[in-house]
Design goal:
273 residues; alpha+beta; 14-stranded antiparallel β-sheet; 4 helices; 14 strands
Length: 273
């Protein structure tokens, strides 16, 4: 179940990262001012797994913490029969980011989950002064985070959430059907290539495919399909996973959704008071 939610979070994040049309970044809006801690965007999804309809409720949020510091997060909770079978699983995947020179730089990326009373936590820390990325894991014996791994930060490196919001900010255009794009995620435990394939424009939106390496599902390579609306928000995503069967995620009413232009303006707006 923990692997499933990690996979779902990655799929949602990567799907949102593809915009069907290009837009220029909006200038800083001095007339628009926001409060620290305000939620800028709140997307809500219903996840169906095999025969379990509404098995997981998931949210994708973007919150402003300080003038140039933000947190993007995907969180979810297993419900109904699946909640019982999974030991009341719940989890969150979040990134704290700095907004600098028109883009988000990840500072701390976390994967956290809990089921049957057991806590699991990974924390990737990006140190731009020392040019390293470090991994800390929760040690149940010490009841503290302990360092397990590090690698050089010699070129831009993004987790899926900072990648996803950067694509929406930059308004990159991926209109060409058949185009394949590849980027590198956090190389733990080994280099991870993620391939984005652009499909046709349909009445339901732009169809794309995300191919993931086996960082999440060992010895598996999975494809996630998604339909994007005019602002690059996935309205539906689906995949077939050997251990869980067919997984379908659908955007549901409610929450707070931004267009690409609104996102650019709000990220650049000063904080009031």
């Amino acid at each position: 179940m923990r692997n499933f939610m990690t996979f779902t979070a990655m799929a949602l994040g990567l799907a949102v990262g593809l915009l069907p049309g290009g837009t220029e970044p909006a200038p800083l809006e001095k007339a628009l001012s926001l409060k620290a801690g305000e939620i800028l965007e709140d997307l809500r999804y219903r996840v169906d797994i095999w025969l379990f309809t509404g098995a997981v409720d998931a949210r994708v949020t973007l919150r402003r913490l300080e003038a140039r510091r933000f947190r993007a997060e995907v969180n979810g909770r297993a419900q109904g029969i699946l909640g019982v079978l999974s030991g009341q699983w719940q989890g969150a995947f979040s990134t704290e980011m700095l907004f600098s020179e028109g883009k988000f730089l990840p500072v701390v990326y976390r994967e956290e989950s809990q089921h049957r009373g057991k806590k699991n936590l990974k924390e990737y820390r990006f140190d731009y002064d020392r040019k390293v990325v470090e991994l800390f894991k929760w040690d149940h014996g010490k009841k503290a985070l302990t360092k397990r791994w590090q690698t050089a930060l010699t070129e831009p490196m993004y987790d899926v959430l900072s990648f996803y919001y950067n694509q929406r900010l930059m308004g990159l255009s991926f209109d060409q059907q058949g185009q394949n794009l590849k980027f590198s995620g956090i190389p733990y435990p080994k280099p991870e290539d993620i391939i984005l394939s652009i499909g046709p424009e349909t009445p339901q939106g732009r169809k794309i495919m995300v191919t993931l390496n086996n960082r999440i599902f060992e010895n598996e390579r999975n494809q996630v399909y998604a339909l994007l609306d005019q602002d690059g928000v996935p309205t539906e995503a689906w995949t077939q996973v050997l251990r869980f069967g067919r997984i379908i995620s659908k955007l549901v009413p409610g929450g707070k959704r931004l267009t690409s232009d609104e996102l650019c303006r709000r990220v650049r707006a000063p904080i009031s008071g």
